[in-house]
Every structure is written in structure tokens, then in C-alpha cells.
Design a protein that fits this description.
It contains 14 helices and 8 strands. The chain has 343 residues and is of the alpha+beta class.
Length: 343
């Protein structure tokens, strides 16, 4: 077996479902990324537009001097539960956030893979693990490595696992034979995700206008959510899976997620009133070590208040009235006042 085949075998044994190699070149969509930032589509994610981040995304050597190869790794996660089973008193959490924080899980597995590579090659080398937060255009390298293609909704999509994937990169200063990008998989003339997106956030160039994206608004956005988008949030309290659940590539997939097989899974449809009444300590305890903490307590309660307004739960009126009158946090208080106006 070649060294590349041995590395892939080790990656699969660690729980990754996809592994591929690409050269540490400037990513193909670097120009599109610059245009995306210039257009303001990154919304309040200022870290996407910082000069040092823009420079780092130009090529991996800015992150790891001497980098020769980007090893792209994919870890599958379970598709969301049937949304039709959600009741009027329940909210929705995006499927990826129901699991332990993928940053920690993938980083630990990738670090073990780096150790395995050192044993296989019997060489000393520098490496860097990147899991989502590093300034690297990871989907470009994953596509170059043959893991999948960048779909119309901007998600990296695999023939075997669809877009229910976490991505991770292992940068190394060793030269490895690059894989070939997929040449026979694409969205063709399908526009279902664009049509299904509640806020029409999916742009023609396969990027997302974060200012309109419900995932961004319920997770990353700080402060009040624009009024025009609140009814479209429905009962989502963290993230949005609409463009993925509608995608034909996400139907009839291999149902495997080895990195998370033994993981404790959150309730995808928590009770809205109970969620709204959680104290900050209870919120942090319930969602400890999961992506839901990313919304922070303020953002979570803001989201739940909006969901309660959209659900028009009469049982929630007292809790909302108390919040609207007495809540110290201005953002949450205003969200509760809006929710009451929907009754």
C-alpha cells in the first residue's frame, strides 16, 4: 500500500469517513471569498474580514510555514429527526449541534492521525490541525481532495454522506500525492435549496448572505434580530437545516457517524417554555460542551422568545409578560415584547 493509502486507512479507523489530499496552493475560490467580504455578506462576523485572516486564507503556508499538503478529513453526523414530529410547544435545534462539540472531537482524532503519520513515515514533520475556526477555505481543499463538491447552498456535499459532514484539515510540511477532485457530481439544474430557503439567503455564486441566513441570525448574530426575519424563524431556536433537508443529495444516505456513535445526543425539539425559563447556570449546564453555547444565554433566550411568539403559545403568556416588564437584558426583553405582540 502507498503511504497515502495507509494514511487514509488510519483516518477511517479513527472514525473519519472521508480523507483526501491536496497541494497547499491558493484555494480556487479565494477571489470569491474576497468579493463576499467586500459585499458585506459576512454580516457581523468581523473575524472573517480581518486583514490577518484575509492574508492567512491566501495559502496554508501562512498558517504553517513550509506546508506542502492539506489533508482534508470528513466526519459524518446524523441527519435531523423528522421535523413533522415537532409539536407546537417545541423548538428546533440544528442537527449538528445536538452532539458534543465537534471542534474538540475532530481535533483530538486529527492529532492522533498526525501521530500515526509520524509512525508510518518515520519522519519528523510540522503539522497543524484546523477545525472550522482557523482562517482556511476548508471546502475548497476538501473539494480539491475529492471529498465532495461545493453545492449550491455552499455546503461540501459527498456522494456517500451528503452534506451532513464536519470538516477538518491536517496541514503538514510533507509532500503527498494529491487526489483528484470529483468530476461527476454537481447540483446540475437543481435549485431546491434556493427555493426552500425561508429568507432567500443563498446567492447565485454558491455563497450565503449571512445577513439573511437563519443559522447566522440564531447563532452568531448579537443583538436584536431584524423584524422582517422573525416570523420566518418559526420555532427554530438554534440553527436551520432547511437547505440540507430539502437537498436530493441528502436522501437515502449511509447512516453512519462513527466518531459520534457513543455520543450523548441532545433533544432536537426541547420544550419552548421550559427553555425560556432556564437560568443562565441551567443553560450552561444543559448545553455544556455542545455548539449550542455559541449562541450565548442572551441569544438563546432571544431565539426562544421569538419562537414562542411564532408558536403563539397561550401557556407562555405569563412568562413573556414577566420578561417584557422586568427583564434586565434589553435584547431579551424586546424579543419578549415582540412575541406578545404576535398573540
Amino acid at each position: 500500500m502507498s503511504i497515502e493509502a495507509l494514511i487514509k486507512a488510519e483516518a477511517l479507523s479513527l472514525g473519519f469517513v472521508l480523507c483526501g489530499f491536496s497541494r497547499a496552493d491558493t484555494p480556487p475560490h479565494y477571489g470569491a471569498y474576497l468579493d463576499w467580504v467586500e459585499s458585506g455578506n459576512h454580516a457581523g462576523m468581523a473575524y472573517m474580514a480581518r486583514p490577518n485572516a484575509i492574508e492567512a486564507r491566501y495559502e496554508p503556508t501562512r498558517l504553517l510555514p513550509g506546508c506542502r499538503t492539506v489533508i482534508s478529513l470528513g466526519a459524518a453526523y446524523p441527519a435531523p429527526a423528522n421535523p413533522q414530529k415537532k409539536q407546537q410547544n417545541q423548538g428546533s435545534i440544528a442537527a449538528y449541534a445536538l452532539l458534543p462539540d465537534y471542534h474538540q472531537v475532530l481535533k483530538a482524532a486529527a492529532e492522533i492521525l498526525a501521530q500515526k503519520i509520524a509512525q508510518l513515515t518515520d519522519q519528523a514533520f510540522k503539522h497543524l490541525v484546523c477545525v472550522d475556526t482557523a482562517p482556511i477555505l476548508e471546502k475548497d481543499y476538501a473539494q480539491n481532495a475529492g471529498l465532495g463538491w461545493i453545492a449550491r447552498n455552499s455546503c461540501l456535499t459527498s456522494q456517500a454522506y451528503g452534506s451532513w459532514l464536519f470538516l477538518c484539515e491536517l496541514l503538514i510540511d510533507l509532500p503527498l500525492q494529491p487526489d483528484k477532485p470529483l468530476s461527476n457530481a454537481d447540483c446540475a439544474n437543481c435549485h431546491r435549496c434556493q427555493m426552500a430557503c425561508p429568507t432567500k439567503a443563498i446567492l447565485p455564486n454558491r455563497t450565503i448572505d449571512a445577513r439573511r441566513c437563519l443559522s447566522y441570525l440564531t447563532i452568531e448574530h448579537r443583538g436584536p434580530i431584524p423584524l422582517a426575519f422573525r416570523p420566518l424563524i418559526g420555532q427554530r431556536i438554534f440553527g436551520c437545516d432547511t437547505c440540507q433537508t430539502i437537498c436530493p443529495s441528502n436522501q437515502n444516505l449511509q447512516n453512519t457517524a462513527p466518531l459520534f456513535d457513543q455520543a450523548q445526543v441532545l433533544d432536537p425539539h426541547p420544550d419552548l417554555i421550559e427553555s425560556f425559563l432556564l437560568t443562565e447556570a441551567e443553560f450552561k449546564s444543559r448545553y455544556a460542551n455542545t455548539p449550542v453555547l455559541r449562541a450565548k444565554y442572551q441569544g438563546f433566550r432571544r431565539n426562544v422568545a421569538i419562537a414562542l411568539g411564532n408558536a403563539r403559545l397561550e401557556q407562555a403568556r405569563d412568562a413573556l409578560m414577566d420578561c417584557a416588564a422586568n427583564e434586565a437584558d434589553e435584547v431579551v426583553r424586546e424579543a419578549a415584547q415582540w412575541a406578545l405582540s404576535q398573540f
